[in-house]
């Protein structure tokens, strides 16, 4: 599913469109960036409540092209600039990680497995 189809499922706010063609097939939720680095993340959306530049650095290293910030976390201008530089889509949502994950799973995204 593309970025806009993905966002329709949980009605977030797209702050940055990463301009990455293709579809997302998997989702991974974590506030622990060391866990993100453990798995293959192609075509994966990262859902997190951790709102720091380190999340973007981790996404860059893991080839993640879409980050959903949960629980009403607000992205800083520095984070948006870094996302633009690395073509990472950014979405903010008021929902919890649990709610976003449940909706995306029902919408057809698969979990990241080893």
From TrEMBL:
Q: Which InterPro entries match?
A: Hpr_kin/Pase_Hpr_N, Ser_kin/Pase_Hpr-like_N_sf
Q: Which GO terms describe its molecular function?
A: ATP binding; phosphorelay sensor kinase activity
**Ranges for domain HPr(Ser) kinase/phosphorylase N-terminal:** 61-103
Q: A biological process (GO) annotation for this entry?
A: regulation of carbohydrate metabolic process
Q: Which Pfam families match?
A: Hpr_kinase_N
Domain of life according to the entry:
Bacteria
Description of how the protein assembles with itself and partners: Homohexamer.
Report the protein name in the record: HPr(Ser) kinase/phosphorylase N-terminal domain-containing protein
């Amino acid at each position: 599913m593309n970025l806009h189809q993905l966002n329709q499922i949980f009605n977030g706010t797209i702050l940055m469109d990463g301009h990455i063609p293709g579809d997302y097939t998997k989702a991974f939720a974590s506030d622990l960036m060391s866990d993100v680095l453990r798995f293959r993340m192609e075509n994966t959306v990262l859902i997190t409540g951790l709102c720091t530049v380190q999340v973007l650095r981790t996404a860059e290293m893991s080839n993640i092209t879409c980050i959903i910030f949960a629980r009403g976390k607000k992205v800083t201008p520095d984070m948006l600039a870094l996302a633009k530089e690395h073509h990472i889509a950014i979405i903010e949502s008021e929902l919890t990680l649990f709610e976003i994950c449940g909706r995306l799973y029902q919408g057809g995204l698969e979990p990241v497995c080893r």
